[in-house]
């Protein structure tokens, strides 16, 4: 289950830059776009548990062929968001509150390992850059800007772990929740700012164990906020 955090999972990808130039929407990008849109509809309550996903209608709405939609549904089946029923089609899976919590807890464990490594690896310059990011996030009022800074904060920790395997796992875990999902919870900005300061203090003190514990709790708490938000949206109402 995202976000968004990482944000829930955007914390490992390199952000695109203006100098990168336009990109063609290749098959992999179309698959990812379709998967993200289906996640968004599921976690916003637009698609309810047990609802059949109309692949043709979705492809038409997105302006793409049915192939990337089918590929996206296979990916979402592996994630537990969608369930394929033989000769009937793809349906939104029934997820429990603990399914959501468990995703964030696992995400937190892996993120905590990255923070533990980062506490040993971050240079003084990198730590100062993270303090600057925290300052900017505290002064930002736009949610999109807050989310972007949150993304960058966690990205720096994850890359400082200097572990290709951890980055790979974080990429998988992070992309499985709708963009901007738990960040939509009304108290997220204040909670994120406070947590970031504690995490920064542990990293600056080179306290690897504390950094790991704090990041694990940061993501576990995000899971509780995700559950609360889904409850507000009537995700489990029938």
What is the element layout, followed by pairings?
Elements: H1 27-43, H2 55-62, H3 66-79, E1 82-85, E2 89-92, H4 97-121, H5 124-139, H6 143-160, H7 164-174, H8 188-204, H9 208-232
Antiparallel strand pairs: 1-2
Helix pairs in contact: 1-3, 2-3, 4-6, 4-7, 4-9, 5-6, 5-8, 8-9
Notes on the structure:
By secondary structure, the chain is mainly α. The protein folds into two domains: 19-92, Winged helix-like DNA-binding domain superfamily/Winged helix DNA-binding domain (Arc Repressor Mutant, subunit A, Orthogonal Bundle), CATH 1.10.10; 97-232, Four Helix Bundle (Hemerythrin (Met), subunit A) (Up-down Bundle), CATH 1.20.120. Helix content is 63%, strand content 3%. A two-stranded antiparallel ribbon has the order 1-2. The longest helix has 25 residues, at 97-121.
Output the structural class: mainly alpha
Task: Report the C-alpha radius of gyration, rounded.
Answer: 18 Å
Provide the β-strand percentage band: under 5%
CATH topology of the largest domain: Four Helix Bundle (Hemerythrin (Met), subunit A)
For the biggest sheet, the summary is:
2 strands, antiparallel
- Give a count of the beta strands, DSSP E runs of length 2 or more: 2
Can you tell me the CATH class of the largest domain? Answer: Mainly Alpha
Number of domains: 2
Shape: elongated
| Overall pLDDT confidence | 84
Instruction: Tell me which CATH architecture of the largest domain applies here.
Output: Up-down Bundle
Q: From N to C, what is the helix and strand string?
A: HHHEEHHHHHH
Major β-sheet strand ordering: 1-2
Helix content: 55-70%
Alpha-carbon distance between the termini?
21 Å
CATH superfamily of the largest domain, called what?
A: GntR ligand-binding domain-like
């Amino acid at each position: 289950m995202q976000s968004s955090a990482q944000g829930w999972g955007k914390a490992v990808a390199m952000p695109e830059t203006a100098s990168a130039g336009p990109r063609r929407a290749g098959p992999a990008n179309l698959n990812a776009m379709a998967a993200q849109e289906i996640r968004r509809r599921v976690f916003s309550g637009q698609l309810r548990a047990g609802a059949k996903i109309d692949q043709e209608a979705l492809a038409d709405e997105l302006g793409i062929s049915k192939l990337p939609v089918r590929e996206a549904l296979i990916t979402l089946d592996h994630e537990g968001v969608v369930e394929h029923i033989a000769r009937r089609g793809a349906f939104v899976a029934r997820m429990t509150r603990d399914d959501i919590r468990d995703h964030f807890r696992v995400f937190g464990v892996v993120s905590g390992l990255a923070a533990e490594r980062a506490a040993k690896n971050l240079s003084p310059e990198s730590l100062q850059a993270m303090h600057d990011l925290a300052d900017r996030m505290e002064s930002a009022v736009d949610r999109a800007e807050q989310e972007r800074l949150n993304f960058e904060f966690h990205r720096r920790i994850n890359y400082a772990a200097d572990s290709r395997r951890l980055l790979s796992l974080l990429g998988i875990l992070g992309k499985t929740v709708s963009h901007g999902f738990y960040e939509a919870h009304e108290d997220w900005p204040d909670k994120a700012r406070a947590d970031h300061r504690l995490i920064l203090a542990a990293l600056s003190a080179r306290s690897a164990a504390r950094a790991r514990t704090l990041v694990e709790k940061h993501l576990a708490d995000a899971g509780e906020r995700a559950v609360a938000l889904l409850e507000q949206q009537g995700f489990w109402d029938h």
